[in-house]
Amino acid sequence: MATTQDDGDIRISVIVPFYNEEANITPLYEALKPVLAALPGRCEMIFVDDGSRDATASRARTIAAADLAVRVIELLGNCGQTAAMMAGIDHARGEILIAMDGDGQNDPADIPLLLAELDKGYDVVSGWRKDRKDNALIRTLPSRIANRLISAISGVHLHDYGCSLKAYRRGVIKNVRLYGEMHRFIPIYTAWFGGRIAELPVRHHPRLRGKSNYGLNRVVKVLLDLAVVMFLQRYLTKPIYLFGGFGLLCMAASLGSFGWMLWLKLFDDKSFIQTPLPVLTAMLFVTAILSMLMGLLAEIMVRTYHEAQGKHVYAVRQLTNFD
């Protein structure tokens, strides 16, 4: 690995977010360094301190002072793993990005295996903690349920969305903006644009130092983020299809309720005030109008988003004979 910082091409960037991992950062660096040194091309390590309250940041700076191939990003506060990952991606220089956890449970020795799989033509290679060393009831079981649900809803079938150890080609994520817990959904983003995805079993070690920052509440957050991802996938460029479709459904229900109300009045001699149908008709009609108006507003916002920022609704894999 290079020990001086220059403007030469970086082939691989390893991005590691840390939060209160003072006991793990040095052992992880010492495990990463020989693995990256054996790889062809220049490598860099990007350590992202996510507002740690312990000595994680100072230990990262100490490592970086001795090895200029290590770059440190210190966030102002605890922004979450996805934000830390996004910071690393934004500042990475490599053509291939490797993401991994900073708790020592991912094994750096698996990085060459991910790269070998990536060389087969894949755009994303996702790790699969097949023999996971976590609490079965609190961590493993909820994760398996969430993974099956995500695979069923998204149509992208992976065993382990939650495994941070992944390899990406830079081109597939350079225009992706990540929020919430969405770093785990990068394979889904890749699949949207026809990218090729592979999954590879990787080693998983029990946590030896420090304590986990994950809890069951993360499952709820992941599922809510999945709802956002699926909305963006299906309706980002045409939100009127969702809002307008719901509005038309409410309008049809309103007309049906109105017709039933008239039938009862004309043929069953029931007064309008004897049933809740007039109120239901009015509520459905108003909901239909509001939904359609929201759809039109969303269409305007989408056009502003794409046109004002020069965003494209497509992704280019490769250009030939273009300057």
Written description of the protein model:
The chain is 47% helix and 11% strand. With 323 residues, it is α/β, with parallel strands linked by helices. The chain has a seven-stranded mixed β-sheet, with helices on both faces. Helix 2 links the parallel strand 2 (43-49) and strand 3 (70-74). Helix 5 packs parallel to helix 8 (217-235) and helix 9 runs antiparallel to helix 10.
Instruction: Report the count of strand segments.
Output: 7
Q: Spans of 5+ residues with little confidence (pLDDT < 50)?
A: 1-5
CA distance, first residue to last residue: 32 Å
How are helices and strands ordered from N to C? EHEHEHEHEHEHHEHHH
Quote the beta fraction: 5-15%
Can you tell me the CATH class of the largest domain? Alpha Beta
CATH topology of the largest domain: Spore Coat Polysaccharide Biosynthesis Protein SpsA, Chain A
Could you estimate the helical fraction of the residues in percent?
Answer: 40-55%
Instruction: Give the name of the CATH architecture of the largest domain.
Output: Alpha-Beta Complex
Strand order, main sheet: write it out. 3-2-1-4-6-5-7
Computed over alpha carbons, the radius of gyration is 25 Å
